[in-house]
Amino acid sequence: MAQSTLSAQHAHEHEHQSHSVFGFWAYLMTDCVLFASLFATFAMFEMQTAGGPTPRELFNLNDVAYETALLLTSSLTFGLAMISAHFRKSRAVLAWLFVTALLGAGFLWLELHEFAHLITEGAGPQRSAFWSAFFTLVGTHGLHVAIGLVWLAVLAVQIMRRPQMTERGLRRLACLSLFWHFLDIVWICVFSFVYLGSVI
Fold first, then answer.
1. Cα 110–194–80 angle (5° rounding)?
2. Of 32, 40, 29, which is closest to residue 193 (Cα–Cα)?
């Protein structure tokens, strides 16, 4: 009787895990649709600057390269956090998550600095269709990074309270890892399509 009860509980937990993973993948698919729509909108208004500043005049690819390096490196450090989690090394997980958070925060700081510079140069989101599409696309990605940082902080607090890495904790980290790597992929598209495509 006890064995059948444990089997039923295990089956219920496994079903709950499957639903959680499926739900997260469904969320990522909706995010793919969102960013695809934003990229399509940007392409529609490419170079529609209404006689105002052009991206070739204002984009600084060196700064964008620094942003890219920070975000891609944060993906690597998150991967190291996941490896540490699988070995149940909670202190190493927290250390790598902290480094990931610093890199992500640095990326956001550079992005906000770029936005401030563009607005100062008269290329704010209200200036033209191009700049409106640019701020919407890049800003939406930045908002996702900010949400990822909050999510990361919440998981770090949970790990500090319960240092023993459980299967549930691993699953939560894995979901955030997928989300973080997804943002890296989106940023590579932004760097290639928005920045390089507008300058070259």
1. 55
2. 40
The tokens describing 196, both together, are 């390089």
- Which of 117, 110, 137 lies closest to 198 in space, CA to CA? 137
- Does residue 7 belong to any structural domain of this protein? no
Bigger pLDDT: 14 or 143? Answer: 143
Q: Are 190 and 155 in contact (CB under 8 A)?
A: no
CB-based contact 141:186 (threshold 8 Å): yes
For 60-108, write each residue's pLDDT tens digit. 999 999 999 999 999 999 999 999 999 999 999 999 999 999 999 999 9
Structurally, how many domains does the chain consist of?
1
* Cα–Cα distances in angstroms (integers) from residue 167 to residues 8, 13, 82, 112, 192, in the given order: 18, 11, 12, 37, 37
| Nearest alpha-carbon partner for 78 in 188, 186, 175 | 175
CATH for 101: 1.20.120.80
Domain that holds residue 39: 20-199
Residue 168 belongs to a domain? yes
Helix, strand, coil share of the chain (percent; to 5)? 85, 0, 15
Torsion from C-alpha of 15, 161, 104, 119, nearest 10 degrees = 100
**Is residue 8 included in any domain, yes or no?**
no
